[in-house]
Amino acid sequence: MLTMFTNSAAMSSTNSMNRANSALSTAMERLGTGKRINSAADDAAGLQIATRLDGQSRGMGVAQNNIAKATAMMQTAEGAFDEVNNILFRMKDLATQAADDTNNADDRTALQTEFTALNAELNNIMTNTSYGTEKLLTGASGAAGKLTKELQFQIGASKDETLKVNLSGALGTVNTALGKLTASGISGGAAAGNAMLENVTKALDAVGSIRSDLGANINRLGHTAANLANMKDNTDLNLGTIRDADFAEEGSKMSRQNMLMQSSQMMLKQANGMGQMVLGMLG
User: Fold this and answer.
1) Which candidate among 118, 165, 212, 251 keeps its CA 20 to 30 Å from the CA of 218?
2) Which distant-in-sequence residues (6+ apart) come within 8 Å of 182 by Cβ?
3) pTM for this model (two decimals)
């Protein structure tokens, strides 16, 4: 039916062109951003899920950095105690040698000189071992180092994912044992050397104990990091499934909607020409 006021063909073509243009704009936006969800209107439920997963993934990424820093800090302390161990081995050698009465006064003086120097280096390691700008073991003038209190490490994205490490007791035992090495020397004769042997042995036991604690926590952090990496990878995969655009699909949609919009424009032009047909009938 030909009418002057209502052109149903033009209206239908216009609506089709608008729908194609809207779908084309959506496909182009997704191809431009690489994301399927660019606003809440695209997928309200998907956006909520993706936001939660993104927050979790970001938290786990920061936690991975926390684990790396915590591991580095404890490895610094463990490395310091490794050197303390080496010094104590040499001090035990000197004490064993001093416990023998084949030494004369000059020998004992030489042994004591080296023993004193090693004690000074022990004090230097315990006082100056630092991580960043903070002393780890014992600060200057006996100030408390970082490991003298309980430490908490955030090893995950949630409130409950924490690791608490308390080495204060073991470190106190080490400080006490090392303090006994300076209380008396090994130059007082075989008996003095023999007594020092026991002190050095106790110091070695104390250092071995705290190194064991450090090693156990370092190993735990290694396993935590591996599990966290697995969790983060799978969370990112899930996030990508929900949020990321499928370029093959969106490219196909863009081509299809572009063709539909062009065909709608052509049909609209044809429909608008129907008015001329009416005028032709009147003339």
Assistant:
1) 118
2) 119, 123
3) 0.77
Quick one: average pLDDT of 197-226? Answer: 95
Give CA–CA dist 64/231, Å, rounded: 11
Mean pLDDT of 114-137: 92
The enclosing H or E element of 116 equals helix 105-128
Give the closest residue to 239 by CA, choosing from 55, 1, 41, 40.
55
CATH of 45-238, one of 3.30.70.1050, 1.20.1330.10, 1.10.3720.10, 3.90.1170.20: 1.20.1330.10
Residue with the two structure tokens 């684990």: 67
CA distance 105 to 135: 40
Residue spans of the domains in the chain: they are 45-238, 245-278
Reported confidence tier of residue 275, pLDDT bands at 50, 70, 90: low
Q: Residue 32 to residues 43, 244, 257: CA-CA distances in angstroms?
A: 18, 12, 16
pLDDT band at 265 (very low <50, low <70, confident <90, very high): confident
Q: How much is the pLDDT for 252?
A: 81
